[in-house]
Amino acid sequence: MRRKLNRSCALRLVSLTVLLMLATSCTIEFAPDELSPNDNSQPTDAGDEDVITVRLRNLSMSDPVEVEFYVAEAPLEAIPDDLFSDEHRIGDGNQIEGQGIGIANTGILEPGAQDTIILSCDHSYILGTTGGSFLDDESGEVKGVGTTLLVQQGDGYQFICNALIGFDYGPDTDGYKTILSLIGG
Question: 67: which strand partners?
């Protein structure tokens, strides 16, 4: 035997469901996607202007990261010492080709954030990070550091023009890590 649900009872059931949903709220966090067709930091086509796209992403959903990113024209006398100097650091107001990184060009990426810089191929570059410092969101104290990485542009090196170079900063089972990805070029 099938029973009909009257309108008053149905409204009470819907109201109860909405109240339960509001009372038991939860937060869902999504990790940043891998490169997708909608990502504006794709490598350029061969017909486009010759550029290098550098994407820096904070994969942590809880900790800001100071990316500690460096750019220098090649060649350098002593790598990595000459690269990892204040004059080549992007952040703290320093820029490359008029572009900075992070919040107000500080070099800090909020949790889940990314930033992109575009470099012309007029010069040969060496790019690197000392790993990035993961910061406590409340105190700003350093919680840990990622992995030191560097890459150099040019024939016979790790990347050439029209490449997308990704520096992904994130948590690891033992603390934090930085991952380098090279696409195209």
Answer: none
Q: Is 39 exposed, middle or buried (0-12, 13-18, 19+ CB in 10 A)?
A: middle
Domains and CATH numbers, the chain: 51-184 (2.60.40)
Distance CA(34)–CA(55), nearest Å, equals 12
Using alpha carbons only, how large is the chain's radius of gyration in Å? 23
The pTM of this model reads 0.73
- Beta strands 133-135 and 65-66 are antiparallel
For residue range 70-129, what is the model confidence (pLDDT) as tens digits? 999 988 888 899 999 999 999 888 888 889 999 999 999 999 999 999 999 988 999 999
Q: Which amino acid makes up residue 2?
A: R
- Selection from 145, 129, 54, 124 nearest residue 88 by Cα: 129
